[in-house]
UniProtKB/TrEMBL annotation:
Pfam families: TPP_enzyme_C, TPP_enzyme_M, TPP_enzyme_N
Family label: Belongs to the TPP enzyme family.
Protein name (record): Acetolactate synthase
Record InterPro entries: DHS-like_NAD/FAD-binding_dom (IPR029035), THDP-binding (IPR029061), Thiamin_PyroP_enz_cen_dom (IPR012000), Thiamin_PyroP_enz_TPP-bd_dom (IPR012001), TPP_enz (IPR045229), TPP_enzyme_TPP-bd (IPR011766)
Occurrences of domain Thiamine pyrophosphate enzyme N-terminal TPP-binding (ranges): 49-159
């Protein structure tokens, strides 16, 4: 393979440049601009390679971080990334890199890059890329693939139609908003425009550029376009706004928030206070509306609050204004109790969302950016807030003293609330499983952007690795509340140590996959083994170069959290929790009952797919 190694050759009257292989040690590496003819006239700079051109495009798009695992097939692109203004974090696994990139985007709202080599590098990253699409992140995936002359000849890690399905991985579709194989430098101007257009749209955008190894070193003779990333907002019509004002003025209504409303927190607060509407949120929307506000009735869905059901049954709204949520199973459990008499006004940037989750309910759909919609609504909406109205509030159960040596999860959450939620500005991520339900149910947030969970894909390992990206992109602390199963599955402690990223892992260590263990026991299903050997995560962390503390009793939690927050590098808090404490899923119980599951109405349930 020809590398960019050059040397001047003196012919007596002129000098010129030749290329040679990296294996020839007599050749000196010189940048083209350093070369000159012997009469002092400068030689025109050599055009950039495709690898350098792609990286220059990423810089112009505002990319600041790239996460990945390199390999020989990706060497030229990896080198170009590493010598750019983009900070490159070399991770331990491609899925961890992908989850980190997703959370980096949500931490700083800048598109991020995932890079991998060919073959297994690509397939290892697919789950994280699946999550990127489901979560609505803006990420660009750079991969290597086999060069055209070697295709079908059993190349190392061959990546072609002979070894991988082209449809879906290398083409646009369900996984990628845009995907292509870069077989020629002449494609780059068009590719750049496609990516810039995708990134400029509201919502997520996941792109995949797969660059054959030989193409990475080829020269890009084309002028690259200037990219315009100005957002194009989806705007509702005046007629749609007038109709919504009329519908919402007919009687009391509720506001149901999803993650898509994240950018409109200020406007939503004003709308709620002007109209007196009760506000509820999906798990991902925690904090968009202050959870200590008297009009907030709680979280819906997984880990949600019984106060929502109390409100729907005792102070039933005439209709519900749905802002930025698909109303999928983790948000609604598709419970009919959540359908008000006159149905929904459902606002989303995706026109395919309204009316799908509740196809039988009357739904007035509005395609719009949430912020644009609410601002337009406020211009026409009268002040109709009723006087002296009181709504049910999310429950807070009293925690009695205990002499047990094991830590109760609810006591741990109470301490996290005080030390981290209220006592710092750290981003907090909760892993799938009981970590999700405990955190969603018991932690309270007063502003958007502090809490992250995955409800689209919900992959174990998302928060365990994503915390790296959140901390790196926010340039501050990020805390992952995770189970021992997820921590064993995939983590990036070693990467955090290398780059001294201030990530904190709080491990709910109960030596089992407890969501599955509790669920199987509840359903009376025996013989399925959800136990795992107890693991000392502090020993593992210290073996990788991080610090940590093991907590075995509740009296030690406060001091351990203080040490974790004060740590300047990565830190693991290994908490031995009581596995018998039933995870808080009262809202889930209502959903299961609505779907016909027997015997769950009065019991705590923590089982995702029954």
């Amino acid at each position: 393979m020809t590398e960019n190694y050059t040397r001047p050759i003196d012919t007596g009257s002129n000098s010129y440049v030749v290329e040679a292989t990296a294996a020839d040690p007599t050749y000196a590496y010189l940048e083209p601009e350093e070369l000159a003819v012997d009469d002092g006239a400068a030689i025109a700079p050599e055009p950039p390679t495709v690898a350098k051109a792609v990286v220059s495009m990423l810089e112009e798009l505002g990319v600041k971080c790239a996460f990945g695992v390199a390999g020989g097939a990706m060497a030229t692109v990896w080198g170009a990334l590493s010598n750019s203004s983009i900070q490159v974090l070399n991770c331990r696994h491609e899925s961890g890199a992908a989850f980190s990139a997703v959370e980096a985007y949500f931490a700083n709202s800048r598109p991020t890059v995932i890079f991998t080599t060919a073959g297994p590098g690509i397939t290892n990253a697919l789950t994280g890329l699946f999550a990127a699409r489901g979560e609505g992140a803006k990420v660009i995936f750079l991969s290597a693939c086999t060069s055209a002359p070697q295709r079908g000849k059993w190349a190392i890690q061959e990546t072609t139609a002979h070894t991988l399905p082209v449809e879906g991985i290398f083409t646009s579709g369900a996984l990628f908003n845009y995907a292509t194989i870069v077989d020629n430098a002449a494609q780059l101007p068009q590719i750049f425009r496609r990516i810039a257009l995708g990134l400029s749209q509201p919502g997520g955008f996941v792109a995949h550029l797969s660059i054959p190894t030989a193409v990475q070193t080829s020269l890009c003779e084309q002028d690259l376009p200037s990219l315009d990333l100005a957002h194009s907002w989806a705007t509702p019509s005046k007629e749609a706004i007038a109709h919504c004002v009329g519908l919402l003025s007919q009687g009391p209504f509720a506001i149901w928030l999803g993650f898509g409303a994240s950018g409109a927190a200020k406007e939503i607060l004003e709308l709620a206070e002007r109209t007196g509407a009760a506000v509820m949120s999906s798990p991902r929307a925690k904090g968009i509306f202050p959870e200590d506000h008297p009009q907030y009735v709680g979280v819906t869905g997984l880990g949600g609050h019984a106060s929502v059901m109390t409100y729907m049954q005792e102070q039933t709204p005439l209709r519900t204004l749905v802002l930025g949520t698909r109303l999928g199973e983790p948000t609604s459990f598709w419970s009919k109790a959540m359908v008000p008499p006159n149905g929904f006004i459902h606002v989303d940037i995706d026109p395919q969302v309204p009316g799908v989750a509740y196809h039988d309910a009357e739904t007035y759909p509005v395609q719009s950016d949430i912020g644009v919609f609410v601002r337009s609504l406020l211009e026409k909406m009268p002040n109709i807030a009723p006087a002296n109205i009181t709504y049910p509030r999310p429950e807070r159960e009293q925690i009695a003293d205990s002499a047990d040596n094991l830590v109760r999860p609810e006591v741990l959450m109470q301490a996290i609330q005080s030390a981290i939620v209220d006592g710092s500005d750290a981003i907090i991520l909760a892993e799938s499983g009981n970590s999700f339900t405990w955190s969603t149910h018991l932690l309270r947030f007063a502003q958007a952007g502090r809490y992250r969970v995955s409800t689209g894909v919900g992959s174990m390992g998302h928060a365990v690795t994503g915390v790296l990206g959140a901390a790196q992109a926010s340039k501050g602390k990020a805390v992952a509340i995770v189970g021992d199963g997820a921590m064993l599955m995939n983590n990036e402690i070693s990467t955090a140590v290398k780059y001294q990223v201030p990530a904190i892992w709080i491990v709910l260590n109960d030596a089992r996959y407890n969501m599955c263990y509790q669920g199987m026991k509840l359903l009376g299903l025996t013989g399925a083994d959800a136990l795992i050997p107890e693991t000392d995560f502090v020993t593992i962390a210290r073996g990788m170069g991080a610090d940590g503390i093991r907590v075995t009793k509740e009296a030690d939690i406060k001091a351990a959290l203080a040490k974790a927050i004060a740590s300047e590098g990565p830190f693991v808090l290994d908490v031995l929790i009581d596995p018998t404490r039933p995870a808080p899923s009262k809202g889930r119980n209502q959903g299961l009952a609505a779907q016909g599951i027997k015997g769950t109405t009065h019991k705590q349930v923590s089982f995702p797919l029954v």
